[in-house]
Write a structure and sequence with these properties.
2 helices, 3-stranded antiparallel sheet, alpha+beta
């Protein structure tokens, strides 16, 4: 999932603060999701401009990430298997 570029200075500063905090502490964040979500898990991972995504995440479906990219935060979404999705759709 690609998030949009910050639209103003304050948004950009919040992004940079979050990104720098993740890099400095060597952490990623787990996102708290509601129980009735279609997603099983969601994580935010920092990706510096001089690095490629972790090999475990490759290959991507879709356009992927260009070799030359700005610092970014990757949003990794884990979905339920098809049996769990069918339960959600039948509700």
């Amino acid at each position: 999932m690609r998030l949009t570029t910050p639209v103003d200075y304050d948004d950009e500063q919040r992004f940079l603060s979050l990104y720098e905090d993740m890099i400095r502490k060597g952490r990623y964040f787990a996102v708290d999701l509601p129980n009735d979500s279609f997603f099983k898990d969601m994580y935010l991972l920092p990706l510096p401009s001089d690095e490629e995504p972790p090999a475990i995440l490759l290959p991507f479906d879709g356009p992927g990430i260009p070799k030359l990219h700005p610092p970014m935060i990757i949003c990794l979404v884990v979905i339920y298997g098809s049996d769990k999705l069918q339960k959600f759709q039948s509700v």
